[in-house]
What we know:
This protein is mainly α. Helix content is 68%, strand content 0%. Helix 6 runs antiparallel to helix 9 (196-217).
Amino acid sequence: MSTPNDAYGSSSNNNNNFSLLNICLRVTFYSTNYNDWMRNIKMALRFEDKEYVLEKELHEIDDTKAIVVELAEYRKQYNDATKVACIMVATMTPEIQRFYEDYWPYEMNKDLVEKYHQRARQDKCEVVKSLITCKMKDGESVSSHAQRMQRYVERLLKINVNFDEELAIDIVFHSLPSCYDQFILTYHMNNQETILAQLQNLLRTAEAGMKGKSIASTPAAAPV
Length: 224
């Protein structure tokens, strides 16, 4: 028969578990946000002293041969691993849940790192390479070029890569031909602060101005 103190302790533990789950549910894992999801999981588990189950594999022991200390340690890890596994699976999309519902945290995290962390790293590398090597093509409008650059930046943001707006604009400037050097110089001299989407309008205006000068400088055809 439980004592009042036992009942109070059980209620307190349930409340703590519920609060822990609420914290973890703030970020749902949907394959491309592994780093953000795992960071949220680890911070919550660290507060509850349960983070170790992600790095320590649970090995079954023989109850008949284990000493009291070993048995107590195993039971604690078993209970912690069960709770953490439930929390991890509960914060996944249904499609991913079906695959990991029978995993222990150690095996689950190991498999997730191999599948999703490495994939996200590779995707980021490919997009960054495309972004920094992209150059405006001959005959291409500056608006089309800037839109292509913005799509690369949006892809990085989608895979949870924090990308500084000023850095994105500098990379766009670097991708432009030399005829835009004066525009870039004027932009920096005026200490303009803009976002990438607004930069497209400025570049479009600059492009129209350069075309206007080109037409004005073309000599008129001699009368027949």
